Amino acid sequence: MVKRQFPNPIELAELMKFKKPTMNATDRRLEKALTIADLRTIAQRRTPKAPFDYTEGSAEGEISLKRARQAFEDVEFHPSILRNVPVVDTTTTVLGGQSSMPFGIAPTGFTRMMQTEGETAGAGAAGAAGIPFTLSTLGTTSIEDVKAANPTGRNWFQLYVMKDREVSYNLVRRAAEAGFDTLFFTVDTPVAGARHRDKRNGFSIPPQLTPGTVINALPRPAWWINFLTTPKLEFASLSSTGGTVGELLNDAMDPTISFDDLAIIRSMWPGKLVVKGVQTVDDAKLLADLGVDGVVLSNHGGRQLDRAPIPFHLLPSVAREVGNDMEVQIDTGIMNGADIVASIALGADFTLIGRAYLYGLMAGGRRGVDKTISILRTEIERTMKLLEVSTLDELGPQHVTQLARLAPIPRTVADAAAATAESKPRTVRTPKAAPAAKTAPAAKAPTKTAPAKAATKTAPTSAPAQAVPAVKAVPAAKAAPAKKAASAKAAAPKAAAAKKAPAKTAAAKTAAATTKTPATRSAASAAPAASAE
User: Fold this and answer.
1) Which end of the chain is more exposed for a tag (fewer CB within 10 A), N or C?
2) Cβ contact 344:330 at 8 Å
3) Is 281 within 8 Å of 518 (Cβ atoms)?
């Protein structure tokens, strides 16, 4: 039976200690945020719909972004045990310099539209944390002002090659003179992606006020006060403003950008050169051969080509092919420190955060960006301790499995289907289309000839029904019995064998080629067994 007693005031006082109230409203909001998702919620509450949707949204059906985030969720970690890891070291070397953590702030456009402190807050927070900050060509703070906000830290510049090349060349010269040490040469924006949210919201610089815009802004007076009482919002690095986001991008970008432009910028830039927006293994290999210092695997945050490759799925193959020749970075979809740890384990040298940074900025300006960095630092350290690794160098594929949700259809299935279609006698349809052919026996002859039957038998018609074996080139082996039967019935065995030899060679080449295709590599990298590579 439970023994009861009168409450002891002294004991109650120890159990009922009240938290000291936080008087500053911004600090009070931010201290409640435990995750980037919490910062996003605060940001949405405090920011008008048009700028928030610009940050939140992506291209067309927004499939690329959803898939990128899902890829990070579809990760299984494999922790070690009893490794004695009381502390962890998150520092790394990237592009010839130090970073306190394996992530930096990605380039973002229109940043002061999100919150008035804009790039100044991002650069200052990055410098204080010891991580790099990247300024966008479409930034709303100038190159020189970013340098002033982060005088001793690492500043990087992201370049769009514009129709007027001299504008781009001038930006390169200004960034070099300001002491920026790395240039991101962006290659995934020949034209603007279809960002439907921006069109619907009339998102532009300057903003186009409508009754709906005003009504949406009424419960967010702080944003409007900041917007109306601070310097004019414009693209600090460009001379022209006005128009929607897509229109501005289409005016600024040039679909004729080529490797010649890359060579010119390389000759102008004294620092590290990184190509941002790489989405295939073959392009990464080509850039490695050209001697660039690094690549960023990115689909532009899902904001350009919808249904683009998932950078995190592409990572293992690219790291395996070019990781020894240049540095490999990754962005798109990172919302947790565990996402960063998984990326490093699968071969990334560094990662970049975009939306996570902007959520913090919208939630609380400079202090909000500090909070974003703090949250990610805590999550990285905690994940490393749970995996029982003390440094980033100890992370490897043995710690991560990418669970397969989306797997490409094996190329051999499509190739076999095409081969089957090619092998079918096209003359079979001719008599049906031409009535006169019924009175001409010669027109039906091609459907009865032995060569037509032989061609039909030698084609791998069973391949489409055996999709999985096709990856292992089984259909080519199974075609042999059919060929033997045809040879036994043929009047001239040697002649029949000679005719069928090319078909066998083609099937063998098809099976061999498909084992080397990027799609097959991607499927392998998504499977659990491939995590040990």
Assistant:
1) N
2) no
3) yes
Residue 327 host element (H or E)? strand 327-330
**pLDDT of res. 45:** 93
pLDDT tens-digit readout, 367-390:
999 999 999 999 999 999 999 999
Q: Do 114 and 55 form a contact (C-beta atoms < 8 A)?
A: yes
Per-residue model confidence as pLDDT tens digits over 407-461: 777 766 556 556 666 665 554 444 444 444 444 444 444 444 444 333 333 333 3
Q: 8 falls in which pLDDT band (50, 70, 90)?
A: confident
Indicate the range of 250-259, 344-353, 477-486 predicted with least confidence: 477-486
Residue 261 has pLDDT above 80, yes or no: yes
Nearest Cα to 402, choosing from 311, 469, 468, 324? 311
Rounded Cα distance between 118 and 112, Å, is 4
Q: Which residue has the higher pLDDT, 393 or 54?
A: 393
Give the helix ranges, DSSP H, for 184-310: 196-201, 211-217, 221-228, 245-252, 259-268, 281-290
Helix 450-458 with 441-448: angle, nearest 10 deg: 40
Question: What pLDDT, on the 0 to 100 scale, is given for residue 202?
Answer: 75
Ordered DSSP codes for 427-468: GGGHHHH-GGGGG-HHHHHHHH-HHHHHHHHHS-TTGGG-HH
Kindly report the number of other CB atoms within 10 A of residue 324's CB atom: 8
List Cα–Cα distances, 331 to 107, 173, 504, in angstroms. Answer: 11, 26, 45
The answer to whether 334 and 359 are in contact (CB under 8 A) is: no
Known catalytic residue at 300 = yes
For tokens 């010119």, the residue is: 264
What tens digit of pLDDT does each residue of 298-322 get?
A: 999 888 889 999 999 999 999 999 9
Closest CA to 403 of 113, 78, 87, 89: 78
Residue 519: is its pLDDT beyond 70? no
Q: What is the pLDDT of residue 268?
A: 96
Q: Identity (one letter) of the amino acid at 254?
A: D
Query: Could you tell me how far CA 197 lies from the centroid of its own chain?
Result: 20
Phi-psi region at 306: left, alpha or beta (left = phi > 0; alpha = psi -120 to 50): beta
Residue count of the chain, please give it: 533
pLDDT of the residue at 376: 98
Question: In whole angstroms, what separates CA 322 from the centre of its chain?
Answer: 18
Enumerate residues 6+ apart whose C-beta is below 8 A from 85. Answer: 384, 385, 388, 389, 390
- pTM for this prediction: 0.75
Neighbours of 496 (CB within 10 A): 20
CA distances from 526 to 24, 27, 188, 398, 409 (A): 47, 42, 24, 14, 13
Encoding tokens for residue 163?
A: 């129709």
Q: Using DSSP, state whether 89 is helix, strand or coil.
A: strand
**78, 196, 300, 313: which is the annotated catalytic residue?**
300
Contact 72, 333 (CB under 8 A): yes
The DSSP code sequence of 22-41 is P--HHHHHHHT--SHHHHHH
